[in-house]
Design goal:
The chain is an alpha/beta fold. Helices cover 18% and strands 18% of the residues. The longest helix is centred in the last third of the chain and has 15 residues, at 135-149.
Length: 174
């Protein structure tokens, strides 16, 4: 990994990427990795910085220096807070979003929580026809992705942490 600032002023002949991936959240990072595995020269571009475990706010009092708000008014965005803040809240008239600003994207701010929707969600006709598949058809893809991410279920025993959900034994709640 090379910081873009380090590349400025250097001669980039022969170093230009075949593919530029914008963002470094779950989807972008996987796409960049898969392309690189296939021998493509990939640049993954992220506007935020890299965070070490000790860089995250530890209390609500520490959160202020990690916030940025951007609000749209009459088609113009106005921002308040720190430009490189970890939590980037975009407030719009019709929708708002909370964006993770840093290497890892949204994974930095959602604590790695992943919830699988109820099966009936996948049967909705709102999905584009090319993506519409039953939950059962998606289960193998889901299990492969979860195993690759090293996910674990809350309440699972340590031996269950590296196996996909469909192969894990059920754990009893106390």
């Amino acid at each position: 990994s090379v910081d873009v600032e380090d590349r400025r002023g250097r001669r980039l002949q022969g170093q230009l990427p075949e593919v530029r991936v914008i963002g470094s959240g779950y989807g972008a990072a996987v796409a960049a990795a898969r392309l690189a595995e296939r021998g493509r020269r990939v640049w993954l571009l992220e506007r935020g910085r890299e965070y070490a475990a000790s860089d995250f706010p530890e209390s609500i009092e520490d959160t202020g220096r990690h916030l940025r708000f951007e609000r749209e008014s009459k088609g113009v965005g106005t921002a308040t807070g720190y430009e490189d803040a970890l939590f980037d809240l975009r407030l719009g008239r019709r929708f708002s979003s909370l964006v993770g600003n840093g290497l890892g994207g949204g994974s930095l701010i959602n604590a790695g929580v992943m919830l699988w929707p109820p099966d009936e969600v996948f049967d909705l006709l709102d999905w584009p026809a090319d993506l519409r598949r039953s939950a059962r058809e998606l289960a193998a893809d889901r299990d492969r992705a979860l195993a690759g991410l090293g996910t674990q279920r809350v309440g699972a025993s340590p031996s269950d942490h590296n196996s996909p959900p469909s192969s894990r034994r059920k754990t009893k709640r106390r």
